[in-house]
Amino acid sequence: MQKCGKCDTSFSWKKIIKSFFWSSDKPFHCDNCEMQHRISIIGRFAFVALTLGPFMGFSVFLAPFDNSFLNLLVGFLIMQIGFMMTPFFVKYEANMRD
Ligand SMILES: [Zn+2]
């Protein structure tokens, strides 16, 4: 799991997931040392790869069901699973300028 760039405190899964719901551009702060963190460029790619990637792959390219609604529904469920995994892969950088 991602750690604080300054004090090495691990960020909780919940804290990272929460940060996505506000805005991916909104930085968040370490609970321990208040250091501000931003999602890195690679983190953004990882986020898209884990959410949109599996969804597009399943619903658009694989599309195993005759019913397009079912393809989208299952693709959406896979996207949810990918989303739940993002805190393990998305990287944050400490904002040392502040
Ligand atoms: Zn910290």
Structure write-up:
Keywords: Membrane, Transmembrane, Transmembrane helix. This is CXXC-20-CXXC protein. InterPro entries: CxxC_20_CxxC (IPR026369). This protein starts with 12 loop residues before the first helix and ends with a strand. It is elongated and about 55 Å long. The model has no long low-confidence stretch (mean pLDDT 90). A hairpin with a 6-residue loop joins strand 1 and strand 2. The protein has one domain. The longest helix is centred in the middle third of the chain and has 22 residues. The protein is built from three helices and three strands, in the order H-E-E-H-H-E. Strands 1-2-3 form a three-stranded antiparallel sheet. The relative contact order is 0.22. The chain is 55% helix and 9% strand. By secondary structure, the chain is mostly helical. The site of zinc ion (ZN) has 8 residues, from loops.
- Rounded to the nearest angstrom, the distance between the terminal CA atoms is 24 Å
Helices, by number, come to 3
Bound molecules: zinc ion
Helical content, roughly?
A: 55-70%
**Largest β-sheet summary:** 3 strands, antiparallel
How many domains is the backbone divided into?
1
Structural class: mainly alpha
- Sequence of strands across the biggest β-sheet: 1-2-3
Keywords: Membrane, Transmembrane, Transmembrane helix
Organism: Evansella alkalicola
Protein name: CXXC-20-CXXC protein
Helix and strand topology:
Blueprint: H1 13-22, E1 28-29, E2 36-39, H2 41-62, H3 68-89, E3 92-94
Helix pairs in contact: 2-3
